[in-house]
Amino acid sequence: MYIDTHCHLDYLQKDNDLKDIVQSAWDANVRLLHTISTRLDESAMIKGIADQFDNVFCSIGVHPNESSEVTHLSQTQITDALLAEVTDKVISFGETGLDYYYEHSDRATQHKSFLAHIDAAKHENLPLVIHSRDADTDTVKYLQSDSAQGVTGIIHCFTGSPEMAKACLDLGYYISISGIATFKTATQLQDIVRWLPLDRILIETDSPYLAPMPYRGKPNQPAYVVHVAEKVAELKGLPLKDVIDQTTQNFMNVCPKVQKNRLPR
């Protein structure tokens, strides 16, 4: 089975019936979906979506571009707020990290929020879902910090440098590949996929964004993660089944809490 490591079902439900989206994924053999939180005040909705489906799990967190939501809170208060939202279906914290491209939130608040997520991850022994855009140096610095020792997670929608990829691998993180890898212009990312060890690769859609070829420019959905897997197999010269099996196992390794739940067959 395939796993969509990172999707936003809350965004998809604005224009779609979620039952149809989840069924379409199931029909494409995408049997597990990890829907990702971007705001604390939407935690109940995110968890509610996960609770509707046996094969949907979720994160809890504050996207760096939404971290102005927690400007008024201390680092400890943010951590406590994250921990208060944990349930059986919450298997990660994020997406957190740093975004210096848009800077919708000031850097100091992004840094505070990032550290709070790291603290929550360490407390619950859950992985982080990391967003890093134009901030690779600082992202790695925080992941290498003493406070982050023993924490692992997923570098979502990877578009960073080879140096960033190596640093994250050295820290025990998994690299998640999105539909961007199918774009003709994504030559650096494609080269990185070629040398990444298969046992550290994950696949995702980031739906409704970044639809892979041949759907580029259209709304993305979890079923399309199949095309990401096919591209990874092509770039690495491997049988598709090897990519499917290993990326599924990789997700179970980084998010072991999933295995404590009764998964549908």
Notes on the protein architecture:
With 265 residues, this protein is an alpha/beta fold. It has a single domain, classed as Metal-dependent hydrolases (TIM Barrel), CATH 3.20.20.140. The chain contains ten helices and eight strands. It has an eight-stranded parallel β-sheet with strand order 1-2-3-4-5-6-7-8. Strand 5, helix 6 and strand 6 form a beta-alpha-beta unit. Helix 4 packs across helix 5 and helix 9 packs across helix 10. It is globular, with a radius of gyration of 17 Å. The model has no long low-confidence stretch (mean pLDDT 97). This is Putative metal-dependent hydrolase YcfH. Its EC number is 3.1.-.-. Keywords: Hydrolase, Metal-binding. Pfam families: TatD_DNase. One of its GO terms (molecular function) is DNA nuclease activity.
